[in-house]
Amino acid sequence: MKSINDGKNFRVVTGSPRETKKLAQKIFQENKKELRNRCLIFALQGELGTGKTQLAKGLGRALGIKETIVSPSFTLIREYPFEVGGRRGIFYHLDAWRIETAEEWLALDVRGLIKPGNVVAIEWPEKGRETWDKIFDSLAVKVVWVNLEHQGKGERIISQPRRLGGPE
């Protein structure tokens, strides 16, 4: 794993799924204090095969989840209970690839998932973006944007635009 400092974004190159998971754990640790008062949402953007599910697996590991985290591509959403620092919550892993309309987002009852202490990882957050922006704007959340890109030779560039907020 190596860091790239471009002055604007937090950027890291990972060379394996293991490194991607370790980076996810680090990103979670930097944000876990938010769980006291907010739901923590990780918006995982990137092309197919860039490591979004690996990053979600790393988040699960950071939460102490023993169950195998699997892609929710066909079920759209999976949930895993966890306990961190004496606090209980649920880790929701969503795959929005097949979501096409606002009605489909609402049918998932996304609003019901957003509670302080819960963690939500959304793959393909750009799908239905306007709908969930409206939902999340009215709730106590912190959204951590994570972009994943192919670098070549099995490497990935993982970045967080405007590290403390949303995309630029």
Automatic annotation (TrEMBL):
Q: What is this protein called?
A: tRNA threonylcarbamoyladenosine biosynthesis protein TsaE
Q: Which UniProt keywords apply?
A: ATP-binding, Cytoplasm, Magnesium, Metal-binding, Nucleotide-binding, Transferase, tRNA processing
Q: Where does this polypeptide localize?
A: Cytoplasm
Cellular component, GO, one term? cytoplasm
In terms of Gene3D superfamilies, this protein maps to: P-loop containing nucleotide triphosphate hydrolases (3.40.50.300)
- What family name appears in the similarity comment? Belongs to the TsaE family.
Where the protein is mainly located, per its record? cytoplasm
Per the UniProt record, the source organism is Candidatus Shapirobacteria bacterium CG09_land_8_20_14_0_10_38_17
Give GO terms for biological process: tRNA threonylcarbamoyladenosine modification
Q: Which residues form the signal peptide?
A: none
One annotated GO molecular function: transferase activity
> What is any Pfam family matched here?
TsaE
